[in-house]
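Aim 2, interim progress. The first record below pairs a target sequence with its structure tokens.
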Amino acid sequence: MTSSRVKPTARRPIAAGLALIATLSVPGAAAFAQEANVLQAPSGMQPARPVPQSLASPPSVAGETAPASAAGPQSIVPPGYGATTPSSAMPDAGPSQFFPAGQQVTEPSVRVLSSIPGQSGTGIEMGTLSGVDASTAGLLSAQQGGFGATMWRGASRADIDSYIARLPVPSRSPVMTDLARRLLLTGAQPPEGAGNAGSLLATRLDLLIAAGHTQAALDLAQAAGKDRSPGVAAGLARAALAQDNERLACDALKDIPPGNDPAHDAMAAFAVKLSTYCQIAAGNREIASLTLDLAREEGLDDPLFYSLASEAAAGIVLRAPEPNELGIVDAAFYRLAKRDLPGNAAALAAPALLPSLLDDPSISDESKVEAAERAAAYGLIDGRGLAAFYKKPSFTPEQMAGLFTSDIPETSPLRRAMIYQAIGSAVAADERIQLFKLAFATAESAGLYYPTVEALYPELQVMEPNEALRPLAPAATRAFIAIGEQTKAQNWFALMTSGGQMLGRDARELSGLMRVAGGSPGAFDGKQLSAEIVADLRSGVKATQFYAASEAMLLDALGFQLDPAVWDALLDARGALTGKVPAEALLNQLQAAGARNALGETVLLALDAVGQTGPGSVHPRGVSQAVSSLRAVGLESEARRLALEALMARSGAGRG
């Protein structure tokens, strides 16, 4: 493929060129808590990733005692899914300016705005805090699910900047997605220490956009005031582009310096691309062509950008490779060039683009199913939204009749849509049992179990447990545990055990899941449970040992007291434990943050310890420390949900 990069014979600063162009602009645009009970990682296992240098510490000495969690057991009700997202409309900005002017703005006095997420037209509470920077802007008060204005109290600015920059978003864990969103939207005093006034806010915007929450990013940037640092302005522009809002995106250019090295400076490259976009959108096609020439001279190497921009500006179609991923700027230039998105856009699109794909009439229903599944996995739509897209594709009677022998690949989104539609039309008990179990099994393997349970809830909740449905009981019990319906879960579990009949490991593990989800540490038979766990740990079956070890460590983190024999058996079976091992320094910091009730730092470190892939892929020690520390700062419900997600990932009961 021919490269569009041209090596210049003499460098000409692109900043100077863009400054000249700017004069032609026109306005407008169309562990456990106790170290004695913490297993060391199996030999040879490596940390999931390094910790920031500021938190590096020597390896802990075996047997060294760490501070115990100060929080005692509390009565909880498992929370549901779908934390709210701010979606209030942004007020109109002033006239747009289409070219970066290179201004370096001064941060204003901090304003913390709070509106009720998910409801437009609600009242706004505004307060001004003296001596605080714009990074304090937020949308969630403590009463609305935020972590409070003092959540960073006692934390180091250097530590928080290091950890928040690598926040694992987007995540496929519902509870981790919820915690990350609330952390990013909370308005709070910044942590102590030196730091760029706009850096923390800019990082929060970037993370919200990476997670797909572009409306929340727009609202947060607006809450920070009109004077913006370059990083904040760039974040606002990217969020606006994701929502196809040319005016807001181009208005942000006045606060983004052009730079002179787009080949190596990401901000300079973004400024060039945004300038080109806004020039074309304003009808200044000749100026846009000049900007493209300057970008080539400066070594910006992006064939797809040049191809799309040249087509939009001058109707010239340049050869370019199909993208391996579809970013926000890429999608904006596809629109500008009036070129169809790649056929696999639903698989390539950044999370921030998924909501727009779902609303795009040019995208096929089949592609929208794939986009909807990704959006549901990242918490951008709920199970009911996923169900709506599962209903859209049309299947022939022959395809529906041959569902179990269909030529549609078993792992494809279309097959899951077909299963969903078949459940709605099935009448016979044995057929519904088979379809429900198939739906849960295929969803679990695709990482879509939680939204699938929500999507199927209307069908599942009207089914009364009876003898004819006994084969469905384990899968139904698991589903209702996942959705937080403890009573329904217990009813289906009772069907499993009625008449003295048991279903092997299913009954053992599902009872454990219910205990973690809502059991009381003061109302269980510790002797009997300890004996069951010890028997599992000594079984010699790795899957059984792994489940029992995870159960013991998570129960301990939740405040349940088990017999000492459990820990002896656990040490003997530690070779069966797998998963990514968080760095020792990170776990120590997480334990210390919980012990001193450092709410924001604890949430941030727990998110880092669990990681982007969720608690199912993390070593039980890392998850149990996160659970213990979240409880220590009063997040009992969230700790329960995290423990449940982790244990469900270790359990094979009721998978379908």
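The second target in this work package is listed in the same format:
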Amino acid sequence: MASYTPPIRDMQFVLHELLGVTDELRTMPPHAEVDADTINAVLEEGGKFAAEVLFPLNISGDEEGCTLDPATHEVRTPKGFKAAYEKYVEGGWPALAGDPAFGGQGLPITVNQCLYEMNNSANQAWTMYPGLTHGAYEALHEHGTDEQKALYLGKLTSGQWTGTMCLTEPHCGTDLGLLRSKAEPQPDGSYRITGAKIFISSGEHDLTDNIVHLVLARLPGAPVGSKGISLFVVPKFLVKPDGSLGERNPVYCTGLEHKMGIHGNATAQINLDGAVGSLVGQPHKGLAAMFVMMNVARLGVGMQSLGLTEVAYQNAAAYAKDRLQMRSLSGPKAPDKPADPIIHHPDVRKMLLTARAFAEGGRALSLYTALLIDRELSHPDEDVRQESADQVALLTPIVKAFLTDNAWLATSHCMQVFGGHGYIKEWGMEQYVRDARINMIYEGTNTIQSLDLLGRKVLGDNGKKLKAFGRVIADFIEEEGTKEAMQEFVNPLADLGDKVTKLTTELGMKGFGNADEVGAAAVDYLRVVGHLVFAYLWARMAKIALEKQDSGDAFYTAKLATARFYFAKLLPETAMLIRTARSGAAPLMAMDEALF
């Protein structure tokens, strides 16, 4: 059977030793009093909830799935999910990083990300219910009216209600400019919304007594395309001015998707039949408001995959130490046993270390990005806030796409470690592979993330954001480049930085002549830049491990060995990616479509 131990020691390493999080938070007035003891206590208690409450429901939730009553349109979540959610709310976990003005605890996003990683390791399908709520909260917090904030934010912050994002329609996915849902203005200032939405995660359930849907729709006479989309808040039950629930709104679940994974989460088909809603933000500016939620969700999807990578690694490593199979090629390692544990076989170690390097690198990247978000939201210096916002914009598609690609590879490797047993349900490994696969698709496919990175975030501002991150890397290289012990990490980092600069310039020039050149190179390009970010963070982690390798703490020995593995075995992937990115659009676009 699968097991899970929250990786609190590594989280503490990233927060306190790599990022110096408490020193950073002291520069932000809302978080200046947050100390290491507080952070560590939250990690410990959050880890207990994940491991003791959520994890035992993961396999059973996958097996049972969600059930729709077609007569009432109500959905029942798997056994134990509702009780777990009640414990989550009782513990105050939904409010951890919420605004104190609406009942939140006001802790940093950086700390909240640790909680979400552990919850996703324990049970991704369950974690999506409060996870999407956080995105709805952020969108209304930034773009909602005072009345909307008063009605909804307190209940979303506490977890008494949950939220969703209703974008996709049967005929359109990423291309939201094609959506057809309509919103008709009413004399009282409300809107009647009609349309069909699909693939709505957490779209209907029995965890709370109300669900707050954020719905994209078109006003009468709206411009065509994405410039004519507005955003509306549409509750399952109408909310009275005093916050109590009124009559049922005609927004119903008409079907549940039968999916490859995340069976415990209700992926709903939603029908709106003149449902009452209120406008969020300005007319025809709905995407700007929804992008707040979408960006939160994209970072959240990265955390989902980080969680799966970690739990898959833990189980594969434990199995590899116990499973006997063949003798080591270099001679018996367990002569008292009929065969050696498979952890002594080189390729098994390669698979395990790949997953470990992706998990620990992903943790560093996700918390590095979360700290930038805290700076963006809370630093008193406007320039620092803007610089941080630019870096978050650059890193968001990388967190989403690079971490989810890595999780697909890592969970597959970890399943492979189990051999035939990995394919068998009782070990839990095949579920991690199935659950990980959706993360590459939803909240904008990884190809869309790649186009966003190269087209918008890099070429769109002539490389300004990328150059700013490059200066961060250059400062580190200048500081550490003369130290002999750091050469094995600094030199490949510097080399890749130079190659990224040249590749970016080349793709920008080719893109001016033919936009398909950008589309042809984008996926490879994102993965190259993802490795650049990982290489920077792994070099920083290696520096700390080198300084403390004689401390007697095996943690640093393992960290240094993993860093060396990453630079020797995973970073060289960039050579191939750069070559394929440079090969251009012709091999992809030359063949006539009739020949496919």
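The chain is about 55% helix and 10% strand. This observation will shape the mutagenesis plan for the next reporting period.
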